[in-house]
Fold each of these.
Amino acid sequence: MTVIIVIFEYLSGKLKYRVKMKNLTYLFILFVFLGCEYHEKSPEKPSNNLDNLQKSIGKFGIVIHGGAGTILKEDMSDSLEAAYKAKLKEAISAGYEILKSGGSSLDAVTHTINIMEDSPLFNAGKGAVFTHDGSNELDASIMDGATLNAGAVAGIKHIKNPINLALDVMQKSEHVMLYGAGAEEFAQTLGYKMMDTSYFYTQKRYESLQKVLRNEKEKNGKKVSFEDPFIKNSKFGTVGCAALDKHGNLAAGTSTGGMTNKRWSRIGDAPIIGAGTYAKNATCAVSSTGWGEYFIRAVVAYDISALMEYKGMTLQEAASEVIQKKVPALGGDGGIVAIDKDGNVAMEFNTAGMYRATMNSEGELVIKIYKDE
Amino acid sequence: MTVIIVIFEYLSGKLKYRVKMKNLTYLFILFVFLGCEYHEKSPEKPSNNLDNLQKSIGKFGIVIHGGAGTILKEDMSDSLEAAYKAKLKEAISAGYEILKSGGSSLDAVTHTINIMEDSPLFNAGKGAVFTHDGSNELDASIMDGATLNAGAVAGIKHIKNPINLALDVMQKSEHVMLYGAGAEEFAQTLGYKMMDTSYFYTQKRYESLQKVLRNEKEKNGKKVSFEDPFIKNSKFGTVGCAALDKHGNLAAGTSTGGMTNKRWSRIGDAPIIGAGTYAKNATCAVSSTGWGEYFIRAVVAYDISALMEYKGMTLQEAASEVIQKKVPALGGDGGIVAIDKDGNVAMEFNTAGMYRATMNSEGELVIKIYKDE
């Protein structure tokens, strides 16, 4: 574009003169110069970490989700909507206060997610959905953008706050990912309390499982349950958080009960680093929510970072590319929340709604549920 | 560049004439046209699958690894070296024949890996290493570059060929990743034979566990076992394969017993789509081997694809960037084998050796073990 504009300027300014050799030489030098400038500004150049750090000092922000899906205003009572918004506000405010007082993004992410894990409103911790055999299997992951260290747990059944165990896997083991009883054995070496499985029982989630099972039976076991929006909505859900602290460090975390009626110890995207969770100080921190299988195949969280780092996209452009184009092209749906190294936030989804909230350095709070809001 | 060359041509051809309005208009139109052409050829644009398909028809290739690590010639007997090379040749030849006769890359990958899984020489299937409690827990994953579909299993104990189960998860379930007993329950619905765990017992791997345990005890449980090259070498290992078939379809697969002395149901990179395995027809197919925790954190397999797609790197440049720079920067080591849409192969590692082999359309076979070979 720059080249074309300059030709225009050249033409309009010079047409009254005869073009001589000298003028053409200037034109040529100008083009070479512009060519170099164009190349330098090319999005392929990796950004400078130190510059970013300098810019970000003092600036911070946080963004959360409580799951994406077929969330329609007509299906929601005023009191339920108010309950969701209040809990989102409580959760994000906790993280905001940590960041404001100079705490780390890892701390903010963990504490914010804890509040959502402890609420029966969201499919994580206390509100986890039921598996096919009527149990609850929890997954979580967390990543530190400063060190690219990461921790994840999957298929755990007795830990109140799976995100805390993911953090401990990252910080206190030599591993990244632990599963089920093994992960809980590790938790016990750290003094974690083993919860009775009844802690995870909620009437609403149990009824969802029964409805899905009835639907499956009526369809002779065929996987057609997604034709019913209620079923689809109640099958998925996740909570997640991405934060930038005053020290320029990014972190992201995700926690979930997985998929209603899941069987065969299915693992979704939430505990997969690169799919459900990713953070890198040079780019962004991302937490995903949606149909996990498609999010694994599209390597959603890391792809957003890669599009920023390698193609020079903004966070919003990268999030839109992945969530509005790449995931739907595979047939999947869901969303992400993300924050970049400069505090810009993206809350992108291709479903009817996503429980979401964000707060910036100035304490400005945004809480939304539906698409057009 | 094109723009500059054309200016040169224009200058040399037209200098003897006075430049009139008409000529300048032509020049302008030419620049607009060339600008568009330049933009179209930019490496940022994702490549056209149909074009690739056309180019690749008839061309095929396959590449395998049997693990990377501290593999030194002075520690290896001639007979053991010959045994490794013979098994690598047998495995890759099986895949080559499938590809040559027009079979799919998925088939070639699966059958090639089966031969290595069935050999006690490699840490996968029959030769799997032992966990801390003296059992064997197997992981595998596979990905189809044509559809971006994927399948993975982790922590399984009774399946002879885990890569086959990963393929069935991809093709016969609505999931991508299944774990342990749940994955085996799914396998039983498909008629898989449940192997007695004694099938996976090999004296050599059991002795490795004992040595690692003794070493750990001597160091009072501290994780310092990597100071002994034998220990380091015997702790890791994987088998993997990447292939391009005559139809232009890429596929990759990885299978492993994980890490000697692993505990708490640790999951490494082998069953993680994006870390251990990735395939996309527009770019490449990759299988990783190495210190899994670092490969997960660096999203190794997908990062190679992203560097090709978004930065226009060649396969070799991308593989080198990730294995020689990014993984070591985190403190990890290991390697990858990969093949791109045009049949170019990369076998990149930052360890003393990697069991590896490749065959191209012409049937040219390369088998190597050590770094400088």
Amino acid sequence: MYRTHNCGELRAADINKTVTLCGWVQKVRNLGGMTFVDLRDRYGITQLVFNTETNAELCEKARKLGREFVIQAIGVVTERSSKNKDIPTGDIEITVQELNILNKSEIPPFTIEDNTDGGEDLLMKYRYLDIRRRPIIKGLQLRNKMSFEVRRYLDGHSFMEVETPMLIKSTPEGARDYVVPSRIHHGEFYALPQSPQQYKQLLMVAGIDRYYQIVKCFRDEDLRADRQPEFTQIDCEMSFVEQEDVLQVFEGLAKHLFKEIKGIDMNYQFPRMVWKDAMEQYGSDKPDIRFGMKIHNITDKVKNHGFKVFDDAEYVCAIAVGGCANYSRKQLDEITEWVKRPQVGAKGLVYIKYNEDNTIKSSVDKFYSPEELTEIAKFSGAGTGDLVLILCGKKLPVLNQMGVLRIEMGNRLGLRDKNIFAPLWVVDFPLFEWDEATQRFYAMHHPFTSPKKEDYDILETNPGEARANAYDLVINGIEIGGGSIRIHDSALQVRMFKLLGFTEEKAQAQFSCLINAFKYGAPPHGGLAFGLDRWAALLNGSDSIKDVIAFPKNNAARDIMIDAPSKISDEQLDELSLIIKPLTDK
Amino acid sequence: MYRTHNCGELRAADINKTVTLCGWVQKVRNLGGMTFVDLRDRYGITQLVFNTETNAELCEKARKLGREFVIQAIGVVTERSSKNKDIPTGDIEITVQELNILNKSEIPPFTIEDNTDGGEDLLMKYRYLDIRRRPIIKGLQLRNKMSFEVRRYLDGHSFMEVETPMLIKSTPEGARDYVVPSRIHHGEFYALPQSPQQYKQLLMVAGIDRYYQIVKCFRDEDLRADRQPEFTQIDCEMSFVEQEDVLQVFEGLAKHLFKEIKGIDMNYQFPRMVWKDAMEQYGSDKPDIRFGMKIHNITDKVKNHGFKVFDDAEYVCAIAVGGCANYSRKQLDEITEWVKRPQVGAKGLVYIKYNEDNTIKSSVDKFYSPEELTEIAKFSGAGTGDLVLILCGKKLPVLNQMGVLRIEMGNRLGLRDKNIFAPLWVVDFPLFEWDEATQRFYAMHHPFTSPKKEDYDILETNPGEARANAYDLVINGIEIGGGSIRIHDSALQVRMFKLLGFTEEKAQAQFSCLINAFKYGAPPHGGLAFGLDRWAALLNGSDSIKDVIAFPKNNAARDIMIDAPSKISDEQLDELSLIIKPLTDK
């Protein structure tokens, strides 16, 4: 072993010990006859001290050390005269007796500091240097601890981790698969899993009762910020359970993680919200409940006052923004422009200022009396000093727009503190989703999701209202994961396939293995999957999942550090019986 | 929850409790007025009892249960009149009060018993039923426990699990990559990792000190028994260590696993053997040291006695097979034929019978006196009653043949008890491997493997004798894993590339990322990787790794359960700009 201790563990209690440390040179400072070297490894920083009076040669050697040199220092732990309260090793320093350069370093392309001077492309190209920076290594440490604690919790609850295959069968529906050509089987391909959904249900048929896996999944989607072509899921499934059992077990997991990772005790039951309320009150199926600012349906209150825009609208809704009645014309114009951007898509914005002095001011003064406006403001949750923002249009789109505006106002008012965590179960998702383009219903979750028993009767007559035993865990407005109770009854499954327009042939073509397996005694079962990257980013206080992925790809699905994807050789193509179609042929 | 207990946990202490169990019907037996149902889940079997006198209707219902029906039974834990000592729940049975059929089952294609009547293809096609069988579920449980304990041990030793990417860059040398066409980047491909070797070394440059990962790896190899296209590695790397440190840490891991999985305390240091001794004494770089039967070099003793075969041979070696002097002519002929099979490849076999009565009998009586033969026998380790088997030829091939024969004789004599575990470190592997075809040296491990310091001087002058800081962990003749200390000194690395005939361009083309990374302060580092499938199979007493893989592929790399690989749609091919070359064009 090249060292006796790491750079983060020595304390006052170690004074007078002779130690050997290894690490990277963070900084060299010369102060008069003294030279100080900050030695860094993943555990921390320890100060090395060299005195030109006691050992001029050694001190000279230290002065020549470059940034990021790898060194070994042997010396005695000494009490510092001026202590550094900012770091755990700040009470001590090492009076060095021997210094060995283990490796030199060229000058790195950016500074290895918490706040670096490197741009994103440079940081990604030299990710192995980026990782040396405290914020990145901290993110990876958090992710590691989180994975370990997930396993510890689930293992303690009789879950078995089972590895499912990576080389599976491509299914045409759903998101796009990454495929892998087979060399042995001419013209055939494997697919990389988008999730182990079918396999975990097969494991339930197999009697594995409580399954989990922390597993890489793949989706060949079009470019979008903060999506990775490969991502990691905490994938879980249980047998002989109902929805309540699943929620209890995984609420326990969430609490375990908050406790172990963040030191937060969540000694309360997570709130639950049905999907319909989430949409109507928060304009989102993943409400951020760290702040109120609920959406109110004011359609009935505003119609028939001669304001054509409202009269023509299907739905009019409002939020009350606390303490913003004093917004200037300029500020209100800016918000109006903001909601009219294509990313939000509103046609316009109506406001009511409910002033501190009880007066009222609105962009629709002409159509409503001050009393009417005051009533609308109060109904929308406003008190004096608050600002009411109103949008109108078709119900679901306008709720979505209002949901986005609500989040924006929450951000502007500083209501979304990263150190506060507000978990929420969203339940009773719709079973089906209507698709305007193809004029038919699709399964919102997947075709094996079970309807709620109370809604069995309306499956055929009113499918749009039918609810599923499906649930999402949402924290701070981020969907951390979700799942459902599956159908295990074959008659109900046949009914579902029919409703979804699956012929028997089509169902067989896509799901034959699972459908056949279900003939041999499928237990009642259900489960869920969490996005590990996203959950880790949330706990890490990161805005991007890249902060908790060791070697992420860029937004063009490219690893610019190792240069992938790249051309392969003609021999490889030939062995796979593949020809690349020239771009011009497309 | 559909149940209060599982089928493996009720004991005499639970008598009189009312419980609810769920599971699969293993067996229904009618004895007079009583009906007994064996209810099975992954935890065990519990006996349900129905009495036609107390509840005829319920009993009738139970009698109609089919094999593998999924049921829920509510009843009272009762003491059995005739206890079953073979199962942990054998003291009790459940007197059932309510029986619910949760799902029916068709008659399974094979019996769900420890010894099933299903052939291998049928078992693989219905793997989800195969897994219900105790031997398979036990294998998966062992694997799960092993993975968990690996993590627990390494986490306790400051190792961080870091996920490395699955979509990486293809490198032309080495085994064949599986590749993944990119849709966005025309004509480019990702590769699936054969191992995270480059990434783990980059993590050392990044300062992650102690890394591990239990990770899927991929190799597109030609068909071979008991190989899987995807397999799982326990991949590890450490910084600031020498070979001894790596061996200590991972010997600790091995001991931890033997203790936790098999309850075996290994309170001794694992023996170590240099590669040269392993080859000369066991004819293998992975000796099974559960038994002796060492190989002895008798070249000098047998030459110049007029026996042309030996006189012409480069190397003559022998093993002494205990207690087999009484082998018949027929038995010896059979062994001779066995070693002449192409799989072994020997030209012939010479024997010496050192009989109980001190007489000697050999197939080469003509050329050697009984005294000479006795001396050879004794030198080969034989005593009276033993049989000496002799092979000759070129040194390395004949040692390999003798190694295979030694294992075969060990098997025949029952010397390879599955319940005995004999771990061994094989160290000092050669740095280079000579390739006859291309008349040059190749790196035996990989080009970053460091030579032993003592051999720096002979790298250019006598490369064939140079040894590496490389090591394998071998248990019972199976290579469980191996690794090396890497080169971190760039001057030495340049020297190695030169020796291996890499031009600078070629080195850059294959390893540019790692070579560049090494410029910025690479720490001394080394590591290893274990084959999880193989180690789990070994601990499970399995001959095939398929016993510890939930959904293995067959020997043609096909998943016959889910039918992969398979054709993909023309749209998919088109999006990927791929054309499949017809077979006839090849």
